Amino acid sequence: MTSPQDEAPHGRTDQVLDAVLATVRRVRAPLRVLAGLGWVVLACTVVALVVGRRYGWAELVVAGCVLGITVAVALLLTIGRSHYSVDLDLADRAVTVGERAMGRIEVRNAGRRRLLPAHIELPVGTGAAGFALPGMAAGAVHDELFAIPTAQRAVVVVGPVRSVRADPLGLARREMAWTEPVELYVHPLTVSLAGTRAGLLRDLEGQATRVISDNDMSFHALREYIPGDDRRNIHWRTSARTGTLMVRQFEDTRRTHTALAISTDQPDYASDAELELAVSVFASIGIQVIRDDLQLTALAGEETLRAQSPRRLLDDCSGIERSPRADDAWDLARTVARTVPTASMVVMITGSVPSHAALRASAAHIPTGVRTIVVACEPGAEISMRSQGSLSVASLGDITDLPRLLRRLVVS
User: How many CA atoms lie within 13 A of 241 on its CB side?
Assistant: First the structure.
């Protein structure tokens, strides 16, 4: 058994440990607001005091005290709580490259006391904009308008709006977020392809396939009724003659299913301008297919993009980026064949680096008989095209030439 005398030292040790941990927690909480420079100054303070006391250097002790007081004052300047009500509003959640994107921040003093002047920050992408907030009486409102650069296609994360308390030397900094971040989609440039609908992007006129279906337009044969069959397909005249319920079977009719794919492999593009042109071509064709109410599967490398509406497709196009580990043009064709085996038309878009011979070879992965178009994008290049059977390989140098290229593809 353990005697009370043995338990006493253990109890005192636990109390000491608890006291030390509590002290560490109390000290750690205010130190969380120290910036990188603040931690350096604090470390210099400790070193100066320890070394100065150890070797009797009064000057070093004085320097340590001055540094310590500086850190303490910096921490005091971050103390306090503001009572703000903040709204972040964007005029548009989606704009086209080059269009003006505006936003507004509304700050209200939700407290009962007057608030001193302060500083607020608005993160925009990888940067941040700062605004000076004046002193505000209780219930007062302050508005700030801002513009967002849209020179490049991107998904720009705006916010959250945060208030900042900091000392002039940058030793300590305390931030408090007041809103949720908002995404701004900067869409790629696109052109209208409405004039090409009757040619390249069209339904395949309901050509019947050998796939048997219970609901289509091309009648195939009759079979006996099975519980669960749609009674609207019962052929009553034959059922009355045979004494057995008979239902119609159909052959599926072939409809255009466009597989639209863009390479995201970094080595396929000689420059960022080539990628931007490729994305514009990709988005322009995809939008027209959706507007024509035809089935579309859109792929960016191995990623399937949303193609339920032009807006969703454009939103996803805003985030297309090059990657050194993405599928190249050769692998992209295999991805299309694997992901969209029912495609009746395949359009693949890439940069200028892969040769036309390599692009034609990559199309071997696409099933025989499927109309396949490969567009190599090179800003400034003249339109060129070479067709062989159901495969066409073309070069494009400007997005405004895309309608003309598609008309040439229709003729070929």
Answer: 6
